[in-house]
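Bit of a strange request maybe. I'm writing a small parser for structure token strings and I need a real example to test against, not something I typed by hand. Could someone generate the tokens for this chain?
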Amino acid sequence: MAVEPFDTTAGGLRFFRNHGMVNKVATIPWHAISPASLPPAPGMRYPLRYQIIAPLMGVMLLAVASLVLWQAIALSDRTTHQVETRLRGVARTLSESNFPLTRPVLEQMKGLSGAEFLLIDGDRNVATSGLQSTSRDWGSGAMASDWRKIVLDHRVTLGDQVLFYASVMLPRRRGKSGQPQLHLFYPQDDFRRAWREAVAPPLLMGGLAIVATGLCGVWIAHRISLTANQITRHVRRIAQGDFRPFPVPLQQDELGDLVRDINTMAEQLKLYEAKIRRTEQEKILEQLGSGLAHEIRNAVTGARMALQIHAGECPLEECESLAIATRQLQIMENQLQRYLQLSRPQETIDPKLVDLTAMLEQLLPLMRPLAEHLLVVLSWDRPTEPMHAMANREALEQVILNLLQNGIEAAAAQSYPASAERQVTLALQQTAARAVRITVTDSGAGPSPVVRDRLFEKFATDKLHGTGLGLSVSRDIVQQHGGTLTWERDGDRTVFTVQLPGLPQEVLDVENSCR
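Reply from user aminoacidic:
Good idea to test on real output. This should exercise your parser:
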């Protein structure tokens, strides 16, 4: 019967076929689902750095523009107020003074206020602070009645110069028939210069703030984007079956928490994948067993019956090898039945009082041919008195035979030192708590580091043709008996220990009464 090979190392099972004995099993490998195989997200891709920088820069531009606009309006009003205040002060001085308002006086006032003055006295005489034009071609602005009402709300052009213009009536002078008129001209360029000097500092600071904010936003966006891209690549590796942990960023922030959570998820997925693989292997084993059990058991049963018929037809005094072969076939049937039930619910054992000393003595002849063939010395450290335990004899025999066979094969494979004797020792002892301890000690090199930490897991083996089921099944059997199966390295020896609970008190009372 040919069985096609199956592969569970890629995360899923191939098509399995065994010529009609088992149905096809097909599982899509979940590693085959990659980001490239998923449909693309709708719309254009908007990188994270732009999502951070664009709103940040927009808010900063709006804030700085609003600040500069408000500052410009406020400074424009303040500059106008300051200029008007200076001009009102000059007009007040001229109004309240008694000295003659001549050209030198107006030029001094110009030096104090920065404005040009033109005075028309009551006799219509004209005095200026340096104006080139006195033709009154500056328009018809409203004339203030006193210096308190001077307002620069009118512009005039004299030659190629634009000036703010205001006029005021001064008090009547002695000896003059008319009321003097004072015309004030303030250069628009000077006004703008003063306004620029006031607006430039906040505008410069706002621009520097925008640049600094932009650079800071670019740095933050770059760091977040870089970490996000690394996390994306790591998640894609996880989706492809690579569960190696991702280096955690030094910053203690949300990104670091996210990376730690992803690493935890990857570790859980790794454990989950290992569990899935074991489950798949157990399912395959169960399917194989359901197809192979009938034929193998028929063959073993036929061979055992043939030996029994031969023993009946050709009676011999006592053939030890024939008895061993018959016993081995019987054990093979029992072990095969247990292997085929690996993935089924654990059956309950039917414990009975077993003489462990007699049982072990009967098992040794079954393993001596293998030991002699492999040049291994199989010794038996027999206790001085019989020891008993409540156990299922057939199940316990399977455990001891498996440990003995493993020990013999390990001792036969030892390569150091060359002169050392290859030896396996079986011992039976009773502990202080009346528990029973069975030990199998071999001189082999012990399990390899690859499987040392998971020696009792299913399918964990370092043997070339091993299945990795013997120790797992043995541990399950011992645990069903309420005991433990452990191993350790004692110097250059490997020791497997089966410890079973002691006899219940009622059984001890019956046993003592029978003595």
